[in-house]
């Protein structure tokens, strides 16, 4: 059996190497390959789009995160193909326009900026395609299984009413999951370096969240809206009151992830701020769908053949 497994692995690697042509392979993901130029182009795009320092030290810390992101995107695209899910050019163009809108830049001007920076449009389009494809996978496989009952909503309303007069926080986050315990040190090093950069450039937090955060609000610059204590892990709750407006937290470890937070506003919760039932329904549903999607992604990773060459 070991011999058969070895032969299969060699066949997978050989097929991926053939697909990569003359480019050096960074990672093999099942039967596909991520090349060194894929990694370099994504690093170039992220450095340009976030404004983080493009120096050897930062790029060294960034590289393992970029490789992990590309592996996840490849697994998402493979799963989408397995489910016969496709993403049209029109959908990719729409995703590009949404990114431009979120950055307050007309789409054509944004396109020109990317091209002038020497970044291949295909690099951004690949990222957008993977995001849209994964959204369709989640919609097909997970969303139908997510249920929120009236009693769930009633319970949440009761909890909110009990918090009248307490603080609410307008929070943005960068959520970095630890999918592989062996790579936790890389994530800590990257998060520490990113925090140092963001404290020098706090205005870049939203763009950094768009690229690095693995939470659903990443597209909106990590914005979580108004939250109360008890919605986040206790380690995160403990930091909320220590942050002044637009301050950047240290990396916060909670379970199998690291959080970087900024608190944009604080206020006292009053009766008129209670969300409507529909809003609570959506919030609970999104939280449950997010947890299920993370488990799905972990399952894809654990069952995949992944060989890092760099």
Detailed description of the structure:
Helix content is 57%, strand content 14%. With 310 residues, it is an alpha+beta fold. The chain has eleven helices and seven strands. Mean pLDDT is 88; it is low at 1-15 and 17-22. The protein has a four-stranded antiparallel β-sheet. A three-stranded antiparallel β-sheet has the order 2-1-7, sandwiched between helices. It has two domains: 2-144 and 295-308, Orthogonal Bundle (Triger factor/SurA peptide-binding fold), CATH 1.10.4030.10; 166-269, Roll (Chitinase A, domain 3). GO terms for molecular function: peptidyl-prolyl cis-trans isomerase activity. Residues 1-19 form the signal peptide. This is Rotamase. It comes from Micavibrio aeruginosavorus. Residues 166-265 form the PpiC domain.
